[in-house]
Amino acid sequence: MAYRKIEEYDEKTTQELAGHVKAILKLLGEDPEREGLVKTPERVAKAWQFLTQGYGQNGEAIVRSAVFTEPYSQMVLVKDIELFSLCEHHMLPFIGKAHVAYIPNGRITGLSKIARVVETYARRLQVQERLTEQIRDCIQDSLQPLGVAVVIEAMHTCMSMRGVEKSNAVTTTSAFSGIFLKSFKTRNEFLQLIGK
Question: What is the predicted pLDDT for the residue at 83?
């Protein structure tokens, strides 16, 4: 399956996850039968399925579902793509934006496909470094462009809510291929366009 938003949840998976959430609530000293928590295990189970739906999606299939022959050979940039992901170390959210550019080599894809690729890989347990490279590699492998550039800026709640508790820290990662690696001028144009 290329891309779908979860609207219906697998009942067996939901019930199994809910059982584990109920056990976690008990271990934390809560009463999962109390009025405010009775439906919490099922809500959490559905939320986790939604937040990790990227495991059931294929980024390359998403891009290839809308590929068009086009002689355009200048930069295509989709910037400020909102992203929400879960840190695989603490399963806490990291939230930010991605800037993705590519230089076509005779083929382009629908602009929404770029945003969907970002979401596909973000909706998995992640580290920002790997997420950045997965987006780059997916577009590079799917379109075979002259180059791909990806920059992600994100705030990690695992760093702001716990641990060092630095709420204003933003992490920036980048990944480049092709002409973005070889040409300072091209890479600099991309960075200027995204305000870096």
Answer: 97
